[in-house]
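User: Can you recover a sequence for this backbone? Please restate the input before giving your answer.

Assistant: Of course. Working from this structure:
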């Protein structure tokens, strides 16, 4: 069975990412932002034993204002850059487009179509808290309609980030409920399962059969925390819509955390995650969603 990590960022430091920004992003964890181009991403995936990584573009320009660092960088990991890195690693990397949708809502629709049809990108990543928008803002509806037409999933960063210029009012996964009500055909992936609003994220995903989730960045919380969320999803019939995704600092270590969840189940005397459920989480479901192995 194929294994897929759906949550890998590309970002080269300092050419694409200002150092202060990278430090602020990881400061609470005492970690450093790992620079990652296509080659380094494949090396991380090799170390993790994962077959394919979905690498994401990002437009972080709304977050790079800092009183001590004026005019330093415009932080944009462009779709063309990501597509070029993917082309160097066929079969190992899959490109994920991104747009800052309110910068130019109509242009975003055209750009998404170009990314899918010309650059062979397989999903759209949106970052409400970094791009300062509510996901149910009707100005984004044409973008969602285009994603349905192109049959690609939309992967939303939901949940916390330590970055000061990323407002928390845009982070609660419940903000996606109105998107699910309006678009029953839209394939939505809730990144980080909306941490720290995890129970809300679980109920959101369970409620909408077209919603999926990843637990990217949970590597540091250990297997029992991960297992408890998986068990809740399993208990309300949503375990089949969990996708493995790591986040760069956890790319090499997170597979081992997943391997330990049934140890946690045994210690707690609670049901195991079956081998079939785990195979789907680790890549089977993502291969379908991202059409991996299909051209
Ligand atoms: Zn991420």
């Amino acid at each position: 069975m194929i294994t897929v990590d759906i949550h890998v960022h590309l970002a080269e430091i300092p050419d694409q990412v200002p150092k202060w920004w990278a430090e602020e992003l990881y400061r609470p964890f005492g970690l450093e932002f790992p620079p990652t181009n296509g080659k380094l991403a494949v090396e991380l995936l090799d170390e993790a034993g994962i077959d394919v990584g979905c690498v994401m573009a990002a437009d972080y320009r709304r977050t790079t204002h800092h009183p001590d660092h004026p005019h330093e960088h415009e932080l944009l990991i462009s779709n063309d850059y990501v597509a070029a890195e993917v082309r160097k690693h066929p079969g190992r990397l899959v490109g994920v487009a991104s747009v800052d949708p309110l910068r130019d809502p109509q242009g975003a629709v055209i750009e998404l179509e170009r990314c899918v049809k010309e650059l062979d990108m397989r999903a759209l990543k949106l970052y409400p808290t970094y791009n300062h928008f509510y996901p149910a803002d009707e100005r984004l509806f044409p973008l969602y309609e285009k994603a349905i037409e192109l049959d690609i999933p939309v992967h939303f960063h939901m949940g916390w980030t330590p970055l000061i210029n990323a407002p928390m009012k845009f982070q609660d996964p419940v903000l996606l409920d109105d998107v699910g009500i309006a678009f029953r055909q839209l394939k939505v992936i809730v990144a980080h399962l909306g941490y720290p609003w995890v129970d809300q994220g679980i109920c959101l995903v369970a409620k909408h059969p077209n919603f999926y989730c990843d637990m990217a960045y949970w590597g540091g919380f250990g297997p029992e925390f991960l297992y408890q969320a998986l068990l809740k999803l399993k208990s309300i019939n949503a375990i089949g819509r969990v996708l493995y995704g790591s986040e760069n600092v956890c790319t090499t270590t997170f597979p081992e955390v997943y391997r330990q969840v049934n140890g946690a189940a045994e210690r707690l005397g609670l049901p195991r995650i079956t081998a079939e459920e785990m195979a789907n989480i680790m890549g089977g479901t993502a291969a379908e969603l991202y059409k991996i192995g299909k051209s």
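That completes the design. The first helix runs from residue 19 to 26.
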